[in-house]
Structure formats: structure tokens, C-alpha cells
Design brief:
Multidrug-efflux Transporter Regulator, Chain: A, Domain 2; alpha/beta; 156 residues; 3-stranded antiparallel beta sheet; 2 domains; 19% strand; Rossmann fold
Length: 156
């Protein structure tokens, strides 16, 4: 560890494991493989920069349980959207729900709120869910966002 850094800026393998919901052995293996950058103390112990752990978690879609989960619901059906919002508000952890009525509005909101999850109707007028998903996954700023596709139409 570099001198002058606060110990609060660094985490032990056990703390990282708790944050990422894995075992300390898994954290050490990730460090050995170079997937998760670690520094070594003079005593030979690994320490992980908190910012590095958060980057790793973000890239892999590992949500911080104590944080608010941002959900974007994209659907042109107001009754279904209202039902879905009521259902999501009953989740056992804090959520922040935003609504978009079409693909274009979804694209704008994704950039401004950067949701953790997008629940998207794939059959909408104008820009459909397929096109929005392709754009999200093609952009390095949004490709990490999880997208759950849904539809009220029968699709074999």
C-alpha cells in the first residue's frame, strides 16, 4: 500500500468478499488471475482499493445491497406499468423507479439516470425494445446495464 493513503480507502479480502457476495478464496483467486487489482502490505497481506472493488462490481453487475437499485420500466401500456411499479415497490430493498413510454424516451432516460436494470417491452410503436437494447449494448457507458425483455404478445 502506498504511504499517505487512509486505511478506509482499502479493503481486506474478507471485506471485499462480503461486498461482492463471494468467499474470500474467490477474491484471492480473482487477484491472482489479475481480474481484481490488489496491493500487498509489507507484511504480505493483500489490500484492495475501494474504488477498484466498486469498478469490478459495476462491470459485473454486482449491486450494492445497501444502495438504492435504479430500475427503468419501459412500456407503452399505462395499466401494466402501474401494476409493475406497485409490484417493484414491494421489493425488500430500496428501489428508485423511473418510467419511459417508448424507446426514444428510454434512450434519453438511460443516459440521465443510468439505471441498474431496465425492464423493457420489446413490442412498442416507433423504436422497439430490440433496437433500444442493441443501442444500450453497443455503448460502453451503458453496456453493463441489465435488460429484462418482456412482452404481452405471443412470440413463438
Amino acid at each position: 500500500m502506498r504511504k499517505g493513503h487512509n486505511n478506509k480507502d482499502y479493503m481486506t479480502p474478507t471485506q471485499v468478499a462480503e461486498r461482492l457476495l463471494v468467499s474470500p478464496v474467490t477474491v484471492r483467486q480473482w487477484a491472482q488471475k489479475g481480474l481484481l487489482e490488489a496491493e500487498t502490505t509489507p507484511g504480505g497481506h493483500r489490500r484492495f482499493a475501494r474504488a477498484e472493488v466498486e469498478r469490478f462490481a459495476r462491470e459485473r453487475g454486482i449491486v450494492n445491497e445497501s444502495a438504492v437499485t435504479k430500475i427503468l420500466v419501459v412500456d407503452d401500456s399505462e395499466p401494466f406499468t402501474a401494476f409493475l411499479v406497485k409490484l417493484l415497490q414491494k421489493l425488500p430493498y430500496p428501489v428508485e423507479i423511473s418510467i419511459a413510454r417508448d424507446g426514444f424516451d428510454a434512450g434519453r432516460k438511460v443516459v440521465s439516470i443510468v439505471p441498474d436494470v431496465v425492464l423493457m417491452d420489446i413490442k412498442m410503436p416507433g423504436m422497439d425494445g430490440y433496437a433500444v437494447c442493441e443501442q444500450l449494448k453497443a455503448d460502453s457507458r451503458t453496456k453493463h446495464i441489465r435488460v429484462i425483455a418482456m412482452t404481452g404478445y405471443y412470440t413463438p
